[in-house]
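WARN  no MSA supplied for this record, continuing single-sequence
INFO  ligand: zinc ion
INFO  echoing inputs
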Amino acid sequence: MNVVSRKEKREHEKDTNYFFELMKIKNHFMKDLDVRFKNVKDPRHQSYITYDCDILLFMIILKNVCNLKSMRSMTNHFNKEECIDNVGKILGLETLEELPHYDTINDFLSELDPKELEDIRTYIIKELLKKSCFDRYRINGKYWGVIVDGTGLFSFDHKHCDHCLRREYTDKETGEKKTVYMHHVLEAKLVIGDMVLSIASEFIENESEDVSKQDCELKAFYRLAEKLKDSYKRLPSVLGDSLYACEGVFNQCNEFKWKYMFRFKEGRIKSISKEFQKIKELEQDDTSSDIFWVNEISYNQRKVNVLECTMEETEKGVMKFTFITDFNITKRNAKNLVGVGRSRWKIENQGFNRQKNIRYHIEHASSHNYVAMKNHYLLAQIADILMLLYEKGCRMLKSFQKTAKEISSNLLEAIRTRRITDEDITTLVKPIQVRFT
Ligand SMILES: [Zn+2]
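INFO  complex generated
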C-alpha cells in the first residue's frame, strides 16, 4: 500500500463519500441486512406503527458507526434534510419525511426479543465464513480461533433490575457497607487475521433477585457454548484465560468436538502444574530454548498438553506464558501455537477497549430498560463487524491512514451533507474489490 501525499489525499477525499463507501461494504458482505431488519418479529401493537423495524434498527447502526454517544445526540445530529433523504434512499423508503425520534426507537428496543438480533448476527458471520478469502486464517488449516472473554458493561449504586449482579463492598472512607449492581457480558469473538468479530454474546445475569448463588462467567460459558453449537457448524478452537482451564470446560469442548487452548496459571490445576515442572526439570537440557512443552499429561480420564514460552518484552521485561491445550504440540507447530495463544489476548484487550473508549461506548446505557440495553449492545456488535470490514477492507480508507474517531466523523459529515442519488443506488449492486492484506 502506498502512502499518499497530502495533496493527493485532499483530492481523493473531495471525491470520497465515506457513508456511501460504507454502504457498499454493507451490500457486499451482508446484502440481506435491510430485509432481515425489516422482517424481525415486530413486538409492537400494529395499529400504532409509523416506522417499520428496518429504519428503527438502521438508525442505531448509524449512531454507532458515527460514534454518537447518546440517543439524544443521535436525534439532533441526524435531523437534517440530507440525512433524512440518504436514509430513505438506502432503505428504499420513497416517502420518508422524518427520522424516528429516539424515544420511539427505545420503546421498540425495549420490546424486541434480543434473539432476533442474535440471529441476524449469525447470518452475517455465516455469510463471511462462506468467503474463501478468510480460509487462510484457520488454525492448523481447520479450526477457527474463537476467544471467550467476559467484561463489565453497566454498574449502578442502586438496584437497576431483578437481574443485576450484586457485589458488596465496604466504603473505605465511611466504613459503610455498600452494594454495587452490575451487568456483565460474556463474548465469543472470532479471530480473522487482525480482526476480532463478535459471534455470540451471553449476558451474565441473575435469574431473579433472590437467587442463592449468583450467575458468573463460567456458568455463562456453558450457555454460550450451547448457542455456538446451535448456530455454527464450523469447528471452533476455543481460546480463553485461565478461568476456563477446568474439567467441566474440557469436557464440554470434547463433547462438541472443539479444540481448546487456555492460558494456564500455576495453581489452577495443581497436579498438572507439578507434573509439567517435574518433566521440565528432567528434560529441558537446552535452557536457552524459549519454548518448552509436554504432551499427554494425565488428568482425570484425559490427557492434556502444556506449552510454555518465555519471551523478552520490551516494556515489561521477561514474560512467561503457559497454555493448556488439546492440540498435539510438535516441533513444527509449537511456535505457531504460541502465536495463536498470545496474539489473541492482545487483540482481545484492544477489542473491548475499542468498544468502551474509542467507539460505541458500550458502558454507556442508551436506555435503562434491560431488554433495550441488550438490544443496543447487540446492535453495537453488528455495527462493529461492519466497521471492521470497512476499515480493514476498503482500500481507499487504508491509504488515508485515519484513526477510528476520524473515520466516524467523516461518516457523520458525509451522511449529513452529501446526498446519495438514484444513480448511486443503482451502483450498489455492482461487485466491489475488497482485500484484507
Ligand atoms: Zn439490572
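The pocket of zinc ion is lined by residues 160-161, 163-164, 183, 370 (CB under 6 Å).
INFO  checksum written, moving to next record
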